[in-house]
Amino acid sequence: MALFRSSTRAIPEVEEIPRHIAIIMDGNGRWAKKRFLPRVAGHQRGLETVRSTVKSCVDLGVEYLTLFAFSSENWRRPAEEVSFLMQLFLRALEQEVAKLHKNNIRLQIIGDRTRFDTKLVDMIAEAESLTADNSALTLTVAANYGGRWDIMQAMRRMLETAPELAQTFSEEDLASHLSMPYAPEPDLFIRTGGEKRISNFLLWQLAYAELYFTDTLWPDFNNAALKRAIQSYQQRERRFGRTSEQLQQNA
Ligand code: IPE
Ligand code: IPE
Ligand code: MG
User: Fold this and answer.
1) Which of 6, 76, 89, 193 has the fewest C-beta atoms under 10 angstroms from its C-beta?
2) Alpha helix (H) ranges present in the chain?
3) Which numbered atom of ligand 1 lies nearest the CA of 195?
4) 71 C-alpha vs ligand 2 centroid, how far in Å?
5) Which CATH number fits domain 20-233: 3.40.50.970, 3.40.1180.10, 3.40.800.20, 2.40.10.120?
6) Which residues are known catalytic residues?
7) What pLDDT sits at residue 13?
8) What is the pLDDT, as a whole number, of residue 9?
9) Beta bridge partners of 71
10) What does the DSSP assignment read for 52-119?
11) Distance between CA atoms of 210 and 21, rounded to whole angstroms?
12) What is the pLDDT of residue 1?
């Protein structure tokens, strides 16, 4: 059931409230450092922001929320921090999945699972199947995710399924094998923590996303901050390659 609609092949419907928000949750370490706390205290607080952001998105009617929790490059961090993050992920699944389910939220995890231990892999599979039919919001957590990995695994799976596509294939052929075939492309991309880069997040899917960068550190990113990001999005003219005049004629 690939719902993938390519922004480069057909012009997407633009809604007041972004249907899909993708966030790089950055700045946990600096938040902690400012308070003379260990970096991991920032990750702990960051989890609270995840909870409040999920709630705000449900309340606002956002359909898809995608959160970058751990990148394929984050393994380069000190071993203790990596191990803390994996533990936090496991505990978050243990503690939150029942609540997500009760709130009718579908949980999906994207990323390379081959480096996770079996307990984590099993919990992910259980959480996904438990929440599969929920419809209030689709929450996707990107863990050990990299945009390049995603494109490469899509290519590999496409050619495994249909070797004849090696000759010629369409965007849709490839995109239906990317990690989020169930979601439209993100309308709004948010990065907290002040850096202005994509850091190997959704490289393919962000083709026409509106980009919003804020200096607010992730643990401080509250409902008002999310609303400011959406207000900024509402000021944008999404042309998808057309001219402003063409948009006004169609309005
Ligand atoms: C983002 O916060 C969380 C992860 C990458 C896991 P950081 O840990 O990158 O925080 P800063 O950028 O060092 O402040
Ligand atoms: C991006 O943040 C990854 C996540 C938020 C999970 P980083 O803090 O790892 O990004 P860089 O290293 O500053 O680009
Ligand atoms: Mg960072």
Assistant:
1) 76
2) 28-34, 39-60, 79-102, 118-131, 147-161, 171-175, 223-234, 244-250
3) 12
4) 7
5) 3.40.1180.10
6) 26, 74
7) 83
8) 84
9) 145
10) HHHHHHHHHT--EEEEEEEETTGGGS-HHHHHHHHHHHHHHHHHHHHHHHHTTEEEEEES-GGGS-HH
11) 10
12) 37
pLDDT of residue 126: 98
Where exactly are the structural domains of the chain?
20-233
pTM above 0.85, yes or no: yes
User: Smallest Cα–Cα separation from 31: which of 46, 11, 20?
Assistant: 46
Q: What is the DSSP letter of 11?
A: P
Pocket of ligand 1 (CB under 6 A): 25-30, 70, 74, 85, 193
Q: How far apart are CA 95 and CA 93, in angstroms?
A: 6
Starting from the CA of residue 81, give the closest ligand.
1
Q: What is the mean pLDDT of each run of 10 residues along the chain (251 residues)?
A: 68 91 98 98 98 98 98 98 97 97 98 96 98 98 98 98 96 95 97 98 98 98 98 96 92 75
H or E, element range at 189: strand 188-191
Three-state DSSP at 28 gives helix
- Cα of 129 vs centre of ligand 1, distance in Å, is 29
Q: What integer pLDDT is reported at residue 88 of this predicted model? A: 97
Q: What is the pLDDT of residue 4?
A: 56
pLDDT of residue 204: 97
With beta carbons less than 8 A apart as the criterion, state whether 3 and 13 touch: no
**Ligand with minimal distance to 82 CA:** 1
The pLDDT value recorded for residue 128 is 98
